[in-house]
Every structure is written in C-alpha cells, then in structure tokens.
Amino acid sequence: MPDASAALPFGDVAFYDNLLPATRAGRYWVTVTHELPDGVRSGAPFSAVQEFLVEAPQFALDASDILSMHPPRGATGLFAEQLPHLVFREPSLPWERRVGGDARTPWLALLVLTEDELDGGGREEGGGTGVVTARIRDFLAPEPGVLKPAVVPDGEVDPDTACRYIRLPADRFAALMPRREELRFLAHCRRSGVGDKAAQNLNTEGLVSVVAANRFPAHPPDGASPVKNIVHLVSVEGLEDWLVERPDFAGGTSVALLSLASWSFQCVRDHAVDFQGLVEGLRGGADQEPDALWLRLPPPAAATADPDPAALEVSNRLSQGFVPLAWHTRTGETAFAWYRGPLTPVQPAPLTKPGSLTKPGPLLTADAAIIYQQRFGMFDLSLAAAWEAGRTAALSDKDFARRLLAFRRWAMSYVDGLRERLDAVGPPARSEGAALADGRSAQERLLSVLDAGLVDRIGGLGARLLTGTETAPRPSGGDAPAADPQAAVRDLLENPAVQEMIEAIVSEDAQGLASWLARLTLFHPLPFNLLVADERMLPAESLRFFRVDANWVDALVDGALSLGLESSRQTVFNALTRGVLGRLARKAAQDLRRQATGVEPVGASVGPDGDGQTISGLLLRSALVSGWPTLSVQPYAGDQPVKILRMDHLSPTVLLVLFAGIPDRIEIAEPQEGFRFGVDGSGTATSRRLEGAIGEQVGGQVPVYDAHGRETRQMRDRTSRVLNLAPGGAGLVRTLGDALASAGAPAGGPLEPAQFALQMIKSPEAIVFHCQIP
After folding, report:
1. 3-state class of 612 per DSSP?
2. 457: Cβ–Cβ under 8 A, 6 or more apart, which residues?
3. Which pLDDT tens digit goes with each residue over 437-451?
4. N or C of the chain: less Cβ packing under 10 Å?
5. DSSP codes, 320-384
6. What is the DSSP letter of 604?
7. How many Å apart are CA 32 and CA 43, to the nearest integer?
8. Which parts of the chain have pLDDT scores under 50?
C-alpha cells in the first residue's frame, strides 16, 4: 500500500509495486451469530447471513478509466525503442481481480501486434484493430478449435451485454503473451503531483496505475513507409494455465481474449513527430525571432524608410495584439474597428474611468467603453466587447443575477437603517457613538458598503460620532448637523485595518458572487473567439505567450455587475461596492484551481501587486495536447514555482494556462506518470540507484534490445521483439539486478516491480522557454 501522506516535491514522481484493494471482486457473505446463556433458550443459536457483492470491471472498461496511452492513439512517430503503456485513473484497477494464487499478479496485459498476427487480420471494425463484438454468453460459449478463458461472470453481469474480443493463433499466443510470473513486473503504481496538469478529475493524492507491454513495436527500415502497430489491453483472467513457457492447448488452434481497450499508431524512423520533435517545433528554428512567440497576428512586411503614418499605425496596432474586425454600426453602416482580447503581448496602461464620485466609477454601459482615435477616425471596441461579454455571461446565469440583486437589497436596507439611527442620535452622543463603534450588528453592515461618497450623503456628524471623535448637541428646531463632514470619514476609510474589516464583512454575504466573478475573470464562461479573435494568432503546432489585460478584465466585471441598475441610488451603490467585490473575486480566483484538482496549487503569486491582478500565461495548440493530455507545465521564478491559476483543455488540441504573476522560465515536459518505458537509441537500459540518490545513474549501460535483430540480448528470440523478463531465471529482471550489484548499488535481493520500472524508464522529454513578458 503506497504511503501518500507526505507531499512530493514539485516535479517528482514515486514508484510503488502495486496498490492491492482491501477486498477483491466477488461474492461475500457475512454471518452473525448470537448465542444466549445456557438455560435461557434451547436449540440452535440465532444467526443471520447477509450476502454482498464487490464489483470490478470484468468484460469491459469505461473509456474514462484510461487517463492516457502511449504512443498516443493515431500517432506517427519514432516509437521503435519504446514499450507502449496505459495509465489508469484508478490506482488499484490492475489488481481488482484475482489471477492465480498470487494477489500481486495483475489481471491485465498489454499486447503489441501487427495486422498479420491477428486471426482474421486487422479488420476495419473497431478502428482497424481487429476486434470482434459479441454478447458475453456467445463469447464464452464453446467453439471448435477456439480456446476460451475459464471465466464465470459476476452476479450482476448481464450475459447479453456486448463485449469485444480478439483471436490469436495458438502459436502466436504462446510466443507473445507474458508468462504468469512476468505479469507483475509489467504493472505498477506511480504517484506525482497534479499541480502542473490540466484539471481532469485526477486522484487528489496523485496516484495512478500503469500497465506496460512486453514487446517493442514493429518499425520500418530507414526511409521506408511507416508500420502500423495495434495495441490491445486484454484480460488474462481464466487464461492462467496457458501463461507458461510451453502451454498445452489440447488441440486448440486459436485463443480468444477479451479486449478492454485498443488503439493503433504508426512507427517511423523520423523523430520529427514524437514528443521531442513536436516540442522542438514549437520553439522554431534558430533564425526565429524571440518575440515570434507572442500572441498576435504576424507582423506586416517591413516598412519603408519613410512609412506612411497610417501604415505605421497599423503596424503598431498589430504588434500590440490588435486585430481589425468588421463592425456593423447601429446606424446600419459596415466598417471595421480595432479589437484586442484579454490576452495581450504588451502591458496596457491603466485605464482612467469616468466617475461622478470622489474616485472613478465602473463603466455603466458598453458605449462608455468605446475608445475613439480622432487622428485616424478609428474606434477601439475592445473594452466595449468585454463589457458586453460580462453582461451576457451574467444574464445567462439566473442564479448569479438572483444573488447580485439580493445582495444589493440586503446591503442597502442596512444603510437605510443606519442612517435613521445616526439621525436620531441624542445628547449622550459620545456613548451612543461608542456603542456604534463597538457593536457589530450596525457598524459591520455599514462598513460593508461605506465609501466617501456614500458617507457624504449620510452626514458629517454621524460620521464623527462613529469614530468617537466628537460629541454633538441635540439639534434644535431645523438646525442642520455640522458642515464639512468629509475629513473624519476619509481618515476612517483610509485606515488599512478598517479596509480589511470591510472585506471580511462583505465576504460573509458576497462569497457566492465572488466565486462566480472569479470564474469570469479567468475566462471560464467566455467563447474562444473573444480570447483569440483571429486563427492566425494561434496556428496549428504553435505556442504563444501573453499577459492578461487588467483593463479588459475590469470592463468584463463591470458588464456583469451592471444588472439591475434601475435608479441613480442603485448606480451609486454599485460604484461604492465595485472595488470590494473586485478584490474578493481576485482572492477567490486564487482558490479555483484547488477546487478543480482537489489539491493546493504549488507555488506562490509573483508580480508587483501581490493581490492577483498580474496574470500571464500561454496558449498551446498542438498534437501534444491530445497525445499527452496530462502534459506537465511548470513555471518558475528563480528556483521557486509560480502558482498556476488555471490549466484547462479548451479543445482536444488547445491548452490554456494562466499564471499568478510573471515567471521567468516555463518548462514543458512529458507527464511524470507517463514516463516512457524502453531503451535508448543503442538498445540499452540505464542502471539507476534504488536507495540514497534514487534514480541517479550508476554503473554502465545494460544491453536489452537489438532493433536490427542481429542479437538476442534480453529478448525471447532475436526477431520477436518480446522481452524475456524471466524473474526466476536468467532474464532481464535478474540481469538488471546483477548490474546494480556489480556497480555497488545492490537492490537487497531480487528486483521488485517498482524497482524494475525505475530501470526501464526513459527520462521524460522537456523543453524550457525563458519568458520574455516585460
């Protein structure tokens, strides 16, 4: 049982032999007996029997059980020296059914085949993997010449349910299938962090299980066409008697195997389409300019020595991330205007919004966000589009609209009540003011919405009484309270402790609003064309970096909070609470990824503000996203990791990552749980320490596989491409253990599955991008 209690360092991975379930699949009975003392009752004791069933997959797997596969489905690449493998979400899945008498033996195996090795060939059924679909009862029914697994369906399995299977010629089965004692060395558990991966309902402890093949893929000679390889995940339950070196098939000519998953890939002798080649392609050639990775349209042709002002303006706009888009005006005209989404290659200057209070207020309409460039007669509709996007998102969510209007009604009712209380202050004003200052029921509700503008409307006397700085006489007749109320109130509101209390009080009633706004500010409900307005900004097989425009995000939030503003009083109140809600939303945004992944994100926020306003990120559009769905993205500032705010697949081939601040370097790597198995280009494995500096190379290389078929090495024969593990004999397991012992790094006995996996992994490919975000 893996100990997953201690946190792993960022980017590390741990290996475990297995994760045995507490109870295996099958029928169980609980018997309870109650015996009474002698003489109280004669006859048999009271007893009851309760039957229960523990279920586990048997004839089929849900597609969601498989986290990733390597090589990826439909991929074409240099896979000749890699052992295909599957990664499962459930860490105990390979051991949930019993095979033979050893609980450590998995019930799953991975076969690598070519089309001519299947009995009947790789027919197009099942995507060209040669599977046959039939009812479970028909699959298990005797058939002349075909050997079937000795499997009894679990009690809840409907025998008329469909299953999928393949048939192998008996001699091929004997040559390719793992031996019973080899199976447990082809499955193990891994544990890695989930903080550098896209949210995909991963195990919160980072545990997964892995099943690897025992055979290298078929590959073409240099320069020849790719070779198709077919991989099947098969059940070995009920096949135990034939998983030996010389099985007795009793006259059977073929063996039927349940296929729980299957896929195919093409193997070539060119590395340009494997992980390393794809990632290197993102970087571009040596002649590519460093700023070519910004999210923006390709720059126009170089300008002349004396460029036209309009051409220069276009060039500058494009370099700043703007896109010219068609615009249909309200008057029916068709023109074009500039648009820039929230993901920009530059840092825009803070926008000064118009406001009628003592400080700028929020944008109340989309028209208020339109920017006109008088020199060229052009409009910039970026912020207007953001405002409309926020309002549209809010209108589409009835729950948010209800929460927003209820919050306003609640808060304004408390303001009204407090105004009445302040107006009624009598002679013992100081004591009454102290009570207001010390009490929570009135002052907390006041502070939740206080702003200099609102307090001006409440009146100066009450404000000074609230701070306890003045005792006022009871007004007589129509005398008004003392004038000039603002100084004491501003002193109160500028106090940092008071500001913290304001946020704490509002958060009790505005947490739902803040969480929704946090998702909005990280662009969850927005369509992709608002983020990337032109496909040429993010072409196929590209990586683009950006900085998030705080002005755009502010306009987005202004649009969302514009609902229900039906009077000047509501408009004023919206302006007074806008800043507090914005700060709460930024704080909530820091917690969204923890809620999505179930673990606390690694790293901290970095940037000049520290309150979550500085956000940067990247967009990746590549076959890497679909081929390696748990791709690792690790941002760093110096030696410290930077917190990831969001990391999601926007489509099968597009990945969006948002960072809390600006990292100085970003590492993109194969996922830790998806380490490739195999050998290096010369067919050798690396001996790695099992204690102390675990994983560190020690000793020399161990010859394992000759891709040219000239030497047998650690294979069953020199042309089969099937590993000879033979843990109890002179196979690869013992050979690797002996190599460690001769290097002075003994394993303390025969290698176990996790130790064997460590020797057979190929280090994950990774590439580092040094961030150019200013």
Report:
1. coil
2. none
3. 334 444 444 444 444
4. C
5. TT-EEEEEE-TTS-EEEEEE--SEESS-PPPP----SSSS-----SSGGG-EEETTTTEEE-HHH
6. B
7. 17
8. 1, 355-358, 418, 422-423, 425-495, 498-499, 610
**Residue type at position 559:** G
Rounded to whole angstroms, the Cα distance separating 697 from 693 reads: 9
**CA 527/CA 546 separation, integer angstroms:** 18
Residue type, 656: L
Q: What are 636's two structure tokens?
A: 């760093």
**Amino acid at position 202, single letter:** L
pTM: 0.64
Please name which of 549, 614, 626, 631 lies closest in space to residue 296, comparing C-alpha atoms.
549
- Over residues 329-375, the pLDDT tens digits come to 888 888 889 999 999 998 888 887 664 334 566 888 898 889 988 88
Q: How far apart are CA 681 and CA 708, in angstroms?
A: 12
CA distance 654 to 540: 9
Q: DSSP states of 725-745 as a string? A: --TTTTSHHHHHHHHHHHTT-
CB within 8 A of 347, min separation 6: which ones?
A: 547, 774
State the pLDDT at residue 75.
85
Question: Which residues, 6 or more positions from 597, have their beta carbon under 8 angstroms from its beta carbon?
Answer: 194, 195, 197, 199, 202, 204
Rounded CA gap, 186 and 110, in Å? 9
How far is it, in rounded angstroms, from Cα 248 to Cα 243?
A: 10
* Spatial CA neighbour of 648 closest among 627, 678, 625, 672: 625
Amino acid at 668: I
Q: Is 749 helix (H, G, I), strand (E, B) or coil?
A: coil
**pLDDT score of 571:** 75
Own/partner pairs for 469-475, CB < 8 Å, 24+ apart?
A: 470/429, 470/430, 471/429, 471/430, 471/433, 472/425, 472/429, 473/427, 474/426, 474/427
The enclosing H or E element of 415 equals helix 398-423
How large is the C-alpha radius of gyration of the chain?
Answer: 34
Measured CA to CA, the distance from residue 343 to residue 534 in angstroms comes to 12
pLDDT of residue 673: 60
From CA 335, how far away is CA 318, in angstroms rounded? Answer: 18
Do residues 82 and 677 lie in contact, with contact meaning Cβ atoms separated by under 8 Å?
yes
Q: Which residue has the tokens 């009450």?
A: 462
